[in-house]
C-alpha cells in the first residue's frame, strides 16, 4: 500500500515526480478508455525502462491454447484472451540527434501526470534534460472520444528551453505486438496490409484463429506555436506489420513545436471494409478537429457525471476514490453494445483472460441500472441470453448434463468457457445463480417485466434444469444436497453443501417456477413459444420443485448461524484478529492446502447470500451470521469488502462500514495489494458504488418502491448520489444533520425513507 | 483389452505377426532391463512407422521446469523427469542399396518377438521382402547383462534368401534424444565429446542442470556364418552428439551375416572418468564374449527365479501373467543400490516423472523382502532415510511446517517433490504413513530391529511430528481431525477426515512413541544421539499422544462401517454394478467434478487401512467394510485389485479373489486400459505377487511366525511360491487336495498353517 503516491484531488488523479519504479503502476492508473477501446498510459515516445505496453479493443479476443500441468476431463481446449491490440499512440522522438527517452535523461523535473476524470483526458508534462544538454518542456495530452468511439487524439508539445532544436517526430502504427500472458508465447496477430497516403497511415491485421480484422490508423499534423505547418512526412518506412513516418522541424528556443496524432481502430465487428472505415474516421476526426473533439469530450463526460457522480464532502481521498471507480467503470463499459461486457481489468491490463465473470451480474449491474438508461442493464442481460446455447453446450459436452441444462462459464468472452482449474471451472457453479438473480434484480429495479417473456425465461429454465440435475438426494440426510462445489469464497474448494450455492439453487428453481406461471398468464404466446422450444412439461417442473422444496442448508443451531459448508465448525477457528499479521495475505504466505483447511474466507459467501436475499432473513440472523463470518474474513478478494460494508452499515456498525468502504474505494489508487501495475480492479469498483448507495444510503427496492435509510460516516460532512429509478432521476443528499431528496422531471415520487413514506414533488427538495 | 495379442506360454512373452498398430505396445511389453539400465523394445534398424523411443538409466534424471495453468503456492519449481537416455542399440541397415525398414517392406512373414523371461533375453525374427525384391531372414537377440550391469549385447543376423546381398551395417550412438513428455520441449542432454577407436565408439554427454555425465559406448563386430570377419569400419561419421560407423559386407544367398554390438552406459554416479570406465566395459565384454555373457545371463536369471518364481498349474495365462510381473519387477530393481528406487514405469516408458511413489513402501517392499536378501528391502528403507532432510525441507519451505516435521514427496527422484497438483502434492499426505509402515513391516518380517535405532527412528520422528502438526482440534467434535486431504482414493480431493489417513496418522504417532521407548531401553546410545540431534523432549511426545489418543474416525453406526471421509453417505450411492458400462472408465468418460462427487472409488482406501492393520479389526468388521466399499470401487488404479483380491480370499470369496487376481496379473499383457504403449505398470506388479502369496496363500507374519491359510482358485490345479523368511527358504505348494511346505537348509521351522502350528523339518515335505 502506498498512500502518498497519488495526490489528493476532487476530480483528477495526479502523480508528481518521476519514479522509474512507478511507471508500470501509473500506466494502469492513468489508463483511458471509451467503452470501445482503451489503453494503458504508456508513453508515446520511446522508453527503455520497465513498461507494460497495452492497448485493447472491446470484443476482440484470441483463443489461446490451454496450458495445464495435469489435464482434467472437461477442461476447455482454448481460452479466450483479452488481446493486446496494435499500438497507434507511438511517436518516437529525436531532439538534436538524441532520442527522447525518460530512462536516459540526465534530469527530469516537474514531471506530472493528470487524469482529468471530469473532462475525460489524460495529460503528462515534464521538463527533461537530454544527455546532449538540451532541456525541453514536454506536454502530452491524450483522450479517446466518447462520442466518436473509433477516434483517439494526442497532442504532444515540445518546447526547447535552453537551445534551438531540430526535432524529428516519428509517429508509427505497430501490429507486431504480443501479450505478456500468452500461454505459449505465440503471436496473436497476422498482418494483412500496410497503406499510407500523405499524413495518413493504415495497418490492417487480423487475429489468428478468431479472424477479427482490425485497421489501425493514424493521421499526423505538425504545429509550431499551435499553427499547423501542413507538413508532409519526410519519409515513410513500412514493414509487414508497421508503418512509421518521419517529420522534421527546427524550432528556436522557447518556441513550442507539436505533433497532433489522431488514431484508433476500425474493426470487422462493425464494418465490412475496415480500411474504408478508417479513412472515414480520419475524415471525421480532421473535420471535427482536435479542439472540438476535446470540447465534445468534456461535454460527453459531463453528461455521464450528471447521472453517475457521487459527491463526498470533507474527505477528498474518499471523493477521489469513488470518482476514480465511477470513471473507470464508464471508461470500460458504456452499455451501447450487447456483444460487450465488463472485463475484470477493463482496458487497463490483460490479466484474467476473458471479459465476463459473475462479477457483472453480482456487482456491476446495480451500478449500471441506477446510473444509465435501463437498456444498458438490459444489454448486459441480453449478453447472457445470446450465450445460452453455449452455456447448454458447456453443461452437456464438458460436464455431462442433459435436457437443456445450462451452466454459464466461469470466465468467458464469446460464451465458451475460458478457465481451467477444475475447482473453479467445474465447481464454482454458483455463478449460474447470479445470472438468474440479475434477471430478477433487473425487473425489481426497472419494473420492466418484458425481458422475462422475451428472453429471460429461457435462461431461467436452463439454469433451473442445471440445479435440478446437479443436486442429488442424500439418503442419509433425507434431503437434497449439492456436493463438490466451490462457493464465492474460493479459499474452499470441492466442499459439500455450500450454503450460498444451495440457497441460490433453490431460489433459482422457485423463481423460475413462479415466472413460468406468470408468463403463462400474462404472456401466453411467449409461454407457448418457449415451452415448445425447450420441451418443458409439468412433470419436469414438479421434479424441480421436489428438489427445491427439500433442499438441505447446513446450519448450527447452537450458534444460530448457517454454515458456509458441511464441516465448517471442524476448523481451527482462530479469528483473523488473532492471526499473525506476518502471515498475511495468506494467499501469498501459505501453501494452498493450508489456505483451504483454514477458516479464513476470501470474500463474502454466506453473507453474499444474505446480501442477495436480505428480506428472507431477520436482522438478528444477519447480525449473528455477520459477526461470525466477518471474524474469519480476510477480504483478499477485491469483491469482498463492499458486501461487508453494506451489511455493517445496515447493522449500524458504521466505523466498520467506513473501513470496508475505504478498502474498496482506494484499492488501486493506494495500491493495497501491490499489483496495480497489472491493471485496475474494474468490476470491484461497482462494489464501491454499492457501498455508498446501498450501504450508507441504504437504497433498496421493495414492492416497486425506492427505499433509503441514510447514514453517514462520521469522517464525512455530506455525500450525494443520484438514482435513475424508472426514468425518474432521484438525487439524494446526506449529511449528519439531514437527508434531502429531489426528483427531476414533472412527476412526484413516493419514496420510503427510514421506513416511512416520503412524497417528493418534482424539483422540490424534500428534507428529513 | 486384447486377450489374443500375446501368445500363451509358461516362460516367454510371444508376439506373432507384424502389426504396425502394435509396435508401440510391444515396445513396452518386450522391454528389457537389468536394474541399472533398460530400454523399450525399439527396433535396432531404422523404422519409419509409429514408435516411442526410450532408453533409460537408473538414477539419471532431469529437473524439468514445472508447467501449470494456475500456480499455487507450494508447488515445486522443478520436476524430476525420468530421462530418455542416449541410444546405443541403433543399427541402420541397407541391403542392396535399400534401407531395411519394416514400415516399407513389401512383405513381412514369420514375424515373431519373444521375451524369454527364464533366461533374460529378447529375440525378434522375421522374413522380409524389400521393395528391391530381396527377401531376407532376420534374427535379432538382445540382452542386458544382470551380472555386468553396464553391458548390453545385440546379435543381429541377416540371411538373404533369394539373392546375394551387399549389406551395409551402420551402428551408431546418439545422444541427440529428447523426452516425449517434456514440459517445454527442451533438450535435456548437452553433448561433451565423441571419440572412436577402430570398432569402438564413445559419446559422452551430460544432463543439463543435474550434470550427470554419461558415456554411451559401443563395440561392433561383423560375422559371416558366426565367424568374426575382424572388420574395421569403412568410414565413421561423427556429429556433436552422435557417431555412426559404416561396415559393408557381401554375402551369398543363404549365408548368414551378422553384426554383434556391445553397448551400454558408464555414468558419473559410479565413475570419475566415464570414458575410461566405458573402455573397461568394452574390454570386459569382448573378453567374456557374447556367448559367455548370454550363458551367464541364463544362470543369473536362473538364480533370480530360484527364489522368486511362482508356479501355477492348469492355467497358462495366469502362469505367464505372474511370471511377467515378477520378471519386470526384477528387471526394474535388484536392490543393489540404495540411491535407486522402483519407478512406476520402470525402464518401459517415461510417464509419471520421478521414480519413487508410496507404491514402493505399500506394494513393492513385501515382494522384495520375501524374494531377496533382506538387505534389498533395507536399501529401499535407507533410500527414504537418506532423503529425510529433504522431506523436512519440503514440509518447512513448501508447506509451512516446522520443528523437523517431515512430509515425504508424492513423487520424487532425489528427495524433492516432483508433482504439482495441489490436491495430490499438498494433500495426499497419507504417503507419509506408508513410509512409517514399511519400517514396521521390515522389522515384522525380518526380525531385524537394528534398522530402527540406526536410521528408522529419525524418519519416524519426522513423520510423527508432521501428523501432530497437521491434525487440528475440532471444538465441534471435541476430537482431533485432519482436514483437507486426498486419501488413497484419488477420486476424492480435499476431503475431511479420510479414515485411512486419520488411522495411519494415529498409528504413526503410537508406533513412533513405542519405538522411542524401546530404543531408549535397548539402544540407549542411539537414543541419546537421536534425541539430541532432533531435539525431542517428553512434552512434545505428550503433545503427539494427545492427538493420537483423541483422533476422530468417521463411521456409520447404522451400517457398522468406517466412513471413507466425512459426508460419504451423502453421496448418490448407486453401486458400480448398476452403473451404465458406457460410462466407464469414469476417469475417461466424466468430467472431474462428476468423478469427485460420485461414490466411486479408484482404489482401496478404507480397505487399504484394513489391509495394513488387519489385526486391529474383526473379520466381521472387514466383511462389512469390504462389502460396502467393494460395491463402489471401480478399480481404475492398477494398485487397487490386489488389496481387494487379498481380502476377498480372506473372506472366502474365492471367485471374486480370482477375478481381481486376473485383472492385476495380465493388466499389461492384455492391455486392459489400452495404454500399454506408454509403458508397463511396474509397481502394481508387486500387488499381483501379494495377491497370490498373501491372498491365496494367506501368508502373514504374526509374532515372528510365518502363517499360511492356503486356498486355491477352482480354475487352478496347483500353485507354488517361495518365501525367504529370515534366511530360511520356505517353499509352499498348494493344490485343492493338499498343501505342502518345505524348508531349505538344516534348521527346522515352526509355521502356523490354518491356525495350527506345523513343524517343518529341513528338506522334508510337510503336508496338510
From TrEMBL, chains A, B:
<dbReference type="InterPro" id="IPR008928">
    <property type="entry name" value="6-hairpin_glycosidase_sf"/>
</dbReference>
<dbReference type="GO" id="GO:0004553">
    <property type="term" value="F:hydrolase activity, hydrolyzing O-glycosyl compounds"/>
</dbReference>
<feature type="binding site">
    <location>
        <begin position="602"/>
        <end position="603"/>
    </location>
    <ligand>
        <name>substrate</name>
    </ligand>
</feature>
<comment type="similarity">
    <text>Belongs to the glycosyl hydrolase 65 family.</text>
</comment>
<protein>
    <submittedName>
        <fullName>Family 65 glycosyl hydrolase</fullName>
    </submittedName>
</protein>
<dbReference type="GO" id="GO:0030246">
    <property type="term" value="F:carbohydrate binding"/>
</dbReference>
<dbReference type="InterPro" id="IPR012341">
    <property type="entry name" value="6hp_glycosidase-like_sf"/>
</dbReference>
<dbReference type="Pfam" id="PF03632">
    <property type="entry name" value="Glyco_hydro_65m"/>
</dbReference>
<dbReference type="InterPro" id="IPR037018">
    <property type="entry name" value="GH65_N"/>
</dbReference>
<dbReference type="InterPro" id="IPR017045">
    <property type="entry name" value="Malt_Pase/Glycosyl_Hdrlase"/>
</dbReference>
<keyword id="KW-0378">Hydrolase</keyword>
<feature type="domain" description="Glycoside hydrolase family 65 C-terminal">
    <location>
        <begin position="699"/>
        <end position="760"/>
    </location>
</feature>
<dbReference type="Pfam" id="PF03633">
    <property type="entry name" value="Glyco_hydro_65C"/>
</dbReference>
<dbReference type="GO" id="GO:0005975">
    <property type="term" value="P:carbohydrate metabolic process"/>
</dbReference>
<dbReference type="Pfam" id="PF03636">
    <property type="entry name" value="Glyco_hydro_65N"/>
</dbReference>
<feature type="domain" description="Glycoside hydrolase family 65 central catalytic">
    <location>
        <begin position="323"/>
        <end position="690"/>
    </location>
</feature>
<dbReference type="InterPro" id="IPR005195">
    <property type="entry name" value="Glyco_hydro_65_M"/>
</dbReference>
<feature type="domain" description="Glycoside hydrolase family 65 N-terminal">
    <location>
        <begin position="14"/>
        <end position="268"/>
    </location>
</feature>
<dbReference type="InterPro" id="IPR005196">
    <property type="entry name" value="Glyco_hydro_65_N"/>
</dbReference>
<dbReference type="GO" id="GO:0016757">
    <property type="term" value="F:glycosyltransferase activity"/>
</dbReference>
<feature type="binding site">
    <location>
        <begin position="358"/>
        <end position="359"/>
    </location>
    <ligand>
        <name>substrate</name>
    </ligand>
</feature>
<feature type="active site" description="Proton donor">
    <location>
        <position position="490"/>
    </location>
</feature>
<dbReference type="InterPro" id="IPR011013">
    <property type="entry name" value="Gal_mutarotase_sf_dom"/>
</dbReference>
<dbReference type="InterPro" id="IPR005194">
    <property type="entry name" value="Glyco_hydro_65_C"/>
</dbReference>
Amino acid at each position: 500500500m502506498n498512500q502518498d503516491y497519488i495526490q489528493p484531488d476532487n476530480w483528477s488523479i495526479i502523480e508528481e515526480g518521476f519514479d522509474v519504479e512507478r511507471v508500470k503502476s501509473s500506466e494502469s492508473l492513468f489508463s483511458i478508455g471509451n467503452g470501445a477501446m482503451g489503453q494503458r498510459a504508456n508513453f508515446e515516445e520511446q522508453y527503455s525502462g520497465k513498461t507494460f505496453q497495452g492497448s485493447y479493443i472491446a470484443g476482440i479476443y484470441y483463443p489461446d491454447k490451454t496450458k495445464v500441468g495435469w489435464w482434467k476431463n472437461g477442461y476447455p481446449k482454448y481460452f479466450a484472451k483479452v488481446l493486446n491490440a496494435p499500438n497507434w499512440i507511438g511517436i518516437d522522438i529525436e531532439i538534436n540527434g538524441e532520442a527522447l527517452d525518460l530512462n536516459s535523461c540526465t534530469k527530469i523535473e516537474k514531471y506530472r501526470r493528470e487524469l482529468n476524470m471530469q473532462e475525460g483526458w489524460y495529460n503528462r508534462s515534464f521538463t527533461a534534460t537530454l544527455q546532449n544538454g538540451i532541456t525541453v518542456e514536454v506536454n502530452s495530452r491524450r483522450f479517446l472520444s466518447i462520442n466518436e468511439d473509433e477516434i483517439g487524439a494526442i497532442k504532444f508539445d515540445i518546447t526547447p528551453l535552453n537551445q534551438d532544436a531540430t526535432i524529428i517526430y516519428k509517429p508509427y502504427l505497430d501490429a507486431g505486438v504480443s501479450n505478456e500472458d500468452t500461454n505459449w508465447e505465440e503471436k496473436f496477430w497476422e498482418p494483412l496490409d500496410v497503406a499510407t497516403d500523405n499524413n495518413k497511415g493504415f495497418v490492417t491485421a487480423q487475429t489468428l484463429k478468431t479472424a477479427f480484422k482490425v485497421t489501425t490508423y493514424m493521421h499526423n499534423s505538425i504545429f509550431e506555436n499551435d499553427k499547423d505547418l501542413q507538413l508532409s512526412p519526410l519519409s515513410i518506412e513500412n514493414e509487414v506489420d508497421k508503418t512509421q513516418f518521419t517529420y522534421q522541424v527546427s524550432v528556436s528556443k522557447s518556441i513550442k513545436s507539436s505533433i497532433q496524432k489522431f488514431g484508433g481502430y476500425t474493426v470487422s465487428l462493425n464494418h465490412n471494409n475496415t480500411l474504408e472505415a478508417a479513412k472515414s474516421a480520419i475524415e471525421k476526426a480532421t473535420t471535427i478537429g482536435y479542439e472540438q473533439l476535446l470540447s465534445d469530450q468534456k461535454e460527453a463526460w459531463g453528461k455521464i457525471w450528471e447521472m453517475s457522480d457521487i459527491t463526498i464532502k470533507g474527505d477528498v481521498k474518499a471523493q477521489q476514490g469513488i470518482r476514480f471507480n465511477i470513471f473507470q467503470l464508464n471508461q470500460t463499459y458504456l452499455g451501447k453494445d450487447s456483444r460487450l461486457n465488463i472485463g475484470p481489468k477493463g482496458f487497463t491490463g490483460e490479466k484474467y483472460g476473458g471479459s465476463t465473470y459473475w462479477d457483472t451480474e453480482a456487482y456491476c449491474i446495480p451500478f449500471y441500472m441506477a446510473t444509465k438508461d435501463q437498456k444498458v442493464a438490459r444489454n448486459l442481460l441480453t449478453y447472457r441470453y445470446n450465450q445460452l446455447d453455449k452455456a447448454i453446450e458447456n453443461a452437456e459436452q464438458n460436464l455431462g448434463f442433459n435436457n437443456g441444462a445450462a451452466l454459464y462459464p466461469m470466465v468467458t468472452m464469446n460464451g465458451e468457457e475460458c478457465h481451467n482449474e477444475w475447482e473453479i471451472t467445474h465447481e464454482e457453479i454458483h455463478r449460474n445463480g447470479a445470472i438468474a438473480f440479475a434477471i430478477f434484480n433487473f425487473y425489481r429495479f426497472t419494473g420492466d417485466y418484458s425481458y422475462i417473456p422475451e428472453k429471460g425465461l429461457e435462461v431461467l429454465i436452463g439454469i433451473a434444469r442445471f440445479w435440478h440435475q446437479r443436486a442429488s438426494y442424500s439418503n442419509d440426510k433425507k434431503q437434497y444436497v449439492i456436493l463438490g462445489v466451490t462457493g464465492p469464497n474460493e479459499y474452499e474448494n470441492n466442499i459439500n453443501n455450500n450454503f450460498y450455492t444451495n440457497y441460490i439453487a433453490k431460489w433459482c428453481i422457485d423463481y423460475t417456477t413462479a415466472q413460468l406461471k406468470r408468463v403463462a398468464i400474462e404472456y401466453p404466446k411467449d409461454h407457448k413459444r418457449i415451452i415448445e422450444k425447450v420441451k418443458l412439461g409439468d412433470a419436469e417442473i414438479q421434479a424441480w420443485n421436489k428438489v427445491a422444496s427439500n433442499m438441505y442448508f447446513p446450519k448450527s443451531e447452537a450458534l444460530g448461524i448457517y454454515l458456509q459448508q458441511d464441516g465448517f465448525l471442524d476448523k481451527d477457528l482462530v479469528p483473523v484478529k488473532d492471526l499473525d499479521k506476518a502471515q498475511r495475505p495468506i494467499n501469498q504466505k501459505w501453501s494452498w492446502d493450508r489456505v483451504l483447511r483454514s477458516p479464513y474466507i476470501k470474500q463474502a459467501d454466506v453473507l453474499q447470500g444474505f446480501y442477495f436475499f436480505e428480506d428472507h432473513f431477520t436482522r438478528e440472523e444477519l447480525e449473528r451470521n455477520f459477526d461470525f463470518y466477518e471474524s474469519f474474513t480476510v477480504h483478499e478478494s477485491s469483491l469482498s469488502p463492499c458486501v461487508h460494508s453494506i451489511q455493517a452499515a445496515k447493522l449500524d456498525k458504521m466505523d466498520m462500514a467506513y473501513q470496508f468502504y475505504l478498502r474498496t474505494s482506494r484499492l488501486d489508487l493506494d495500491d493495497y495489494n501491490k499489483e496495480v501495475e497489472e491493471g485496475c480492479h474494474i468490476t470491484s469498483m461497482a462494489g464501491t458504488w454499492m457501498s455508498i448507495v446501498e450501504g450508507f444510503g441504504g437504497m433498496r427496492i421493495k414492492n416497486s418502491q425506492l427505499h433509503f435509510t441514510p447514514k453517514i460516516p462520521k469522517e464525512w460532512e455530506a455525500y450525494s448520489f443520484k438514482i435513475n429509478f424508472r426514468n425518474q432521476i432521484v438525487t439524494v443528499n446526506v449529511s449528519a444533520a439531514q437527508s434531502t431528496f429531489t426528483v427531476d422531471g414533472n412527476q412526484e415520487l413516493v419514496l420510503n425513507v427510514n421506513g416511512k413514506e416520503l412524497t417528493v414533488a418534482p424539483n422540490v427538495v424534500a428534507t428529513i
